Structure formats: structure tokens, C-alpha cells
Amino acid sequence: MSRSDTLMCQASDGRRARRVKRAAPQAGLAVFCDYDGTFAVQDVGSSLARQHAGDRRPALWARLARGELTPWQYNRELLNGLALSEVELVRFLRTVELDPGARSLVTWCASRHIPFRILSDGFDWNLDRLQEIHGVHFEYDANRLHYASGTWRIEAAYPDPSCFCGTGVCKASRIARFRAEHPKTCVVHIGNGRVSDLCGAEAADIAFAKDSLAEALEERRIAFEPFRTLLDVVSRLEELLAETP
Question: Domains in the chain: how many in total?
């Protein structure tokens, strides 16, 4: 692979250099970003489950680990019917912090007319309130949540039974749909989780990864860009645009 086709990166934490595709000059970029643990510091669903469904969580997690449940089935067993009022939920959401570079990433993409979209295996109700709370706005794909008699009712938004992810929002499928309409665009995926982000990272041209997603990509010997905060991602994307011949 020639230098015009690839770009070498060196992980700041000492991991070996990785090769990643770079955008063709005429293609442009599109950025897809995970929310929980990536755009936001906390994982909203996991935090809520620990606080309000902790008695069920260990047994369900063990079944997930044994392959008896898909990630979406795990979510349904854990969160569907959760007795948590809207007032309590909003109170919790106000404690959720954004990554230090979250706003910078949204602004950077908007100023360059680069499509930006959150891909989340979380819930639309939460993302709508989190945008209001933090005063940051973005397009997103997420599962559906509504209240019935004071309890959660959840619905998978974009599952793909053909994908290994087993999630309610298959990120590879959402990227594939975008590619069908924009075949020349270089797709960037940013994430942190082995379960919900792996298929999206594999589908992207450039994958930014940390935490368990980085470990999973290392295991599979799949190229990725390591990062700590989204400020690192913005800086690296700026370099990619500047270095493209």
C-alpha cells in the first residue's frame, strides 16, 4: 500500500503503529460517533442499570457472556418495564458529562460541512434530553423509549439479524445505508465498546477506538486510530485533511 493510500499513526500509550486508510481528496468525510462512553463520559444505560436494576444485572450479564442472549435481548430483559419516573431520569441525565472534545467535534464538522451523526444503542428519549441539557445538537440513530404507566417501554430501532453485533442499532448497517447514497465519501467511526461499536468500526474507512473496542480491534488485527478524548480525534481529522495530497 502506498503512502498516498495510507497514513501511519503511533499510539500515544505505546501500542504499535497502525495503518489506516486516508480520504481521497474528492471524496470528503462523514463522521459517525458512538454516544455512551465516547461522546459522553458515562455509559447512560449501564449506569442506570447498575442503579435501578442491579439485582437482575449479574445473572443477565452471565447469560450474555455465554451467548444465550444477544445484546438487544439483554437490554430488553434488563430495561424494558424499568420503573423509573421521568423526573428521576432527567435528574440522572443532568449528571452525565460530555467528553472534553464533544462540542469541538460537532463544531469542527459543521464548520467544514462534514456530515456528523451519533450512532447509539441507547435511547432517543435520553438523547433528546441530553441535547437540551448540554446545549449541543446533532443528528442521531438510537433505539426508542417511551413511558407507559410510569415504566419504560423500549423498542429496537435498526436491528440487523445478519450482523454479529445483535444490537438494537446495528452500526454497520447504518453506515452501509449511508455508503449506498454517498459511495465516494470516506467514512469515520468513533467508539469505545466491543459490543456495540465493533461492527461499525469494521465497516468504516477510518476507525477511532479506545477501551474495549481498541482491544477487540487489536485482537482482530484491524487498523485503527487510538484516542483518549474527542479532542485527539479532532486534531487527527485535521491532520488527515491537511495531509491528503
Answer: 1
- C-alpha distances (whole Å) from 20 to each of 6, 9, 188, 196, 243 are 6, 8, 11, 21, 13
Is 80 inside a domain boundary?
no
Is 217 part of a structural domain of the chain? yes
Q: What is the pLDDT along the chain (245 residues), one digit of tens a residue?
A: 222 233 333 333 333 334 455 444 456 899 999 999 999 999 998 898 888 888 888 999 999 999 999 999 999 999 999 999 999 999 999 999 999 999 999 999 999 999 999 999 999 999 999 999 999 999 999 999 999 988 999 999 999 999 999 999 999 999 999 999 999 899 999 999 999 999 999 999 999 999 999 999 999 999 999 999 999 999 999 998 887 55
Question: Does any domain span residue 210?
Answer: yes
Angle between helices 194-203 and 171-181 (to 10 degrees): 20
Q: What CATH number corresponds to the domain at position 10?
A: 3.40.50.1000
Which domain range does residue 164 map to? Answer: 6-42+98-145+152-243
pTM, two decimal places: 0.89
Amino acid in the structure at residue 1: M
